[in-house]
Write a structure and sequence with these properties.
two-stranded antiparallel sheet, mainly alpha
Length: 283
Amino acid sequence: MTRLQADDTWWLGVAVAAFAVISGQIVMVLGEAPPHTAWVQFVAITFAAATFPLMSQGAEQAMRWPLATVWLCAAAILLTAMFGPDVEGVRRWAGTPAVAIHVGHLVTPLAIGVAARRPGPWSASALAALSLGLALQPDAAGLIALTAALGGLLALERNRWTAAALAAAALATLWALLNPDTLAPVSWVEGMPATALSMELWLGFLVALGLCLMPMPFLFIAAQGRRRRPLATALAAYWLALIGASLVAAFPTPLVGYGVGPILGYVLSWALLRVGAPSARQR
C-alpha cells in the first residue's frame, strides 16, 4: 500500500482554508466588522479554490526556475517596501484602497520553496534581500514566520547556506521587533480569537478550531515520506509562526482575520507541495 501524497489529497488544504475563512466570516457578520469584509473573504477563498489547478501549474513552473523565482520574490518585497501604498509609515500591500493584498504572504511561500529545493549562495543572498525588504516595510510577523520556516528546514537538512539565510532572517526579525510599526490594531484583523471569544464561547471555539487545523495538512504530508518532508515542515512552521505571533502580539490573524493575502498565500503554499522538493540524491 503506497503512502498518500499531496496530489492524492489536493482538496485537503483547500478545505482547511475554507473552514478557517468561514469561521472568521461568521464572526465578522455577527460582529462589528464592515459589511464588505465578509464578502471580500468569500471572493478570495472562492477564487483561490477555483484557481488551485492554475496555482499548482504556476508553482511547478516557478520551481523549474528557482533562482529567478527567489530573486523576483525578493524584488517584489523590496519594491513594495519602497513604493507601496504608505499606511502610517508601513508599506506591505499592493492594490487599491478597497482591496489591498499583502505581498509578503504571496511571495514568501515561494521563497521557502526555493530554499527547500535549491539551497546555495544565490538563493541565500536572495532570502537575505527578502528579509531586508520585510524589515524595511516593516513586517515583524512575516519575518518571524520566515525565520521559523528556515529553522525547520535547517533542522531537517543541515546546510550552511540555509543557516546563512536563517541568520539574516533572524537579524532582520530582531530589528523589526525593536522598531515596531505604529498601526492601530483592528478587531477583525488582529486578535480575532479574543474578539470571537468576547462575543460568544462557541465563536471562540470555532475560530480556535480553524487556527488549529491550518498547519495540519502540511504536517500530514511531512509525515508521509522523505521527499516532501523538508518543504512541508518549513511551510507548517511558517503558518504556525504566523498563528503564534498573532496570539501573543498585535499581529494579523491569518485566514480567520480579514485579509486577502493570507488566503491566497495559504492555498499557494499547499499548491507548492504538489511540486515538492527533490531529495538530496536528486540535487
